Each structure stands twice: as structure tokens, then as C-alpha cells.
Amino acid sequence: MARPKSDKSQRETIVNATLNCFHQFGYEGTTVARICKATGLSAGNIHYHFGGKKNLLEEAMRVLLRDVRARMVDSLRKADSPADRITAIVESNLHPDLFNQPICITWLHFWAQAPHAEELSRLERVNRARFRQNLRHEFGQLYPRERTELLITQLVAMVDGFWIEKAQPGATIDSQQAIYAVKVFLQGQR
């Protein structure tokens, strides 16, 4: 039986509440009961749409990954050179709408759960491969293969490190500072 179109709105409400609960209570402290309280929906509604907390984390990550990808595709359309496209890739991964503490905390929960859940692990592998492949294509036009691979490793570590830093209590780094730090690093590679 196909779900009604109004379900899309409920699904978005549930995912947003899940993100907020992960931020407020952590993965272990997030319960269907807390999500119900935040959404005003019944546990039956939550289970109908997602089945449980692991599936909610999976859907939240799918939403976040789609947001990053949409921003990247849009930014890449406007970029003319490999260097501009590298900057576009970085900026889309550190965009202020995504690079905030609630989302960074959710991302850490995702990373922590991925080794233990096949679908989350698959999402992480696909995301990491896509990020690295996009960088490989652009760096490969500027540098030899060995240097390209080293730069990709360094840049991915920087971006991941900024996300981890942003998830910490009292973190002060913002999107502009993180992007600037990456740009300074990239300028030093020329």
C-alpha cells in the first residue's frame, strides 16, 4: 500500500525532531518517546514511518547527505577551474546551514554507529568515496597521482576534524573560519 503524500511532511517533522533529540540527548538518550513528545505524534506514527531509532538515524543521515550533495552540485556548476571546484567541494561540506553543532553532533553519532549497522556503514562508504572521488578528479588535474592522494587524505582529515571540533561543547569555530583554514592550507600547496 502506497503512503499518502502528506506523509512526506510528517517524515520531515520526525527527522527534524530526531536531529534535535540527538543534539540534546545524544544517541543513547534519544528515544521514540522523546521524539513523540517533540513532534506531537504517536509512537505508532514514528514506527510506521521508520521502525525505530537506527532507521531514524539512517534517514537523518540520508537527508544531511542529500543537502551536502545538492549544495555541492550547485556550487560546482558555478566553478570554472579545478581550484575553484575544490573550493566549491570544501565550501559545500562546511556550509553554515550544515556546519552547526546539532548536525555535527548527529554526524558523530552516525560515525560511531556505522561500524555496527550495515546500512549506516554503506552510507558512510558511499559518502566518503564520493567526497574523495570529487576531490581526486579536481586535484588530479593539478598534481601528480601520489601528491593528489596525499592532498585528498589531508583535506578529508581537515574537514572531518572541523566537524568533530564543531560538535564539542563550547566550540567557537564557525563555517567561515573552517573554510579559511582550508583555503590557507590549499594555497600553501601551490
From TrEMBL:
Pathway: Amine and polyamine biosynthesis; betaine biosynthesis via choline pathway [regulation]. The keyword rRNA processing does not apply. InterPro entries: BetI_C, DNA-bd_HTH_TetR-type_CS, Homeodomain-like_sf, HTH-type_TetR-like_transc_reg, HTH_TetR, Tet_transcr_reg_TetR-rel_C_sf, Tscrpt_rep_BetI. Pfam families: TetR_C_6, TetR_N. Gene3D superfamilies: Tetracycline Repressor, domain 2. The keyword Transcription regulation applies. Keywords: DNA-binding, Repressor, Transcription, Transcription regulation. Residues 8-68 form the HTH tetR-type domain. Residues 31-50 bind DNA. Repressor involved in choline regulation of the bet genes. This is HTH-type transcriptional regulator BetI. It comes from Roseovarius pelagicus. The gene is betI.
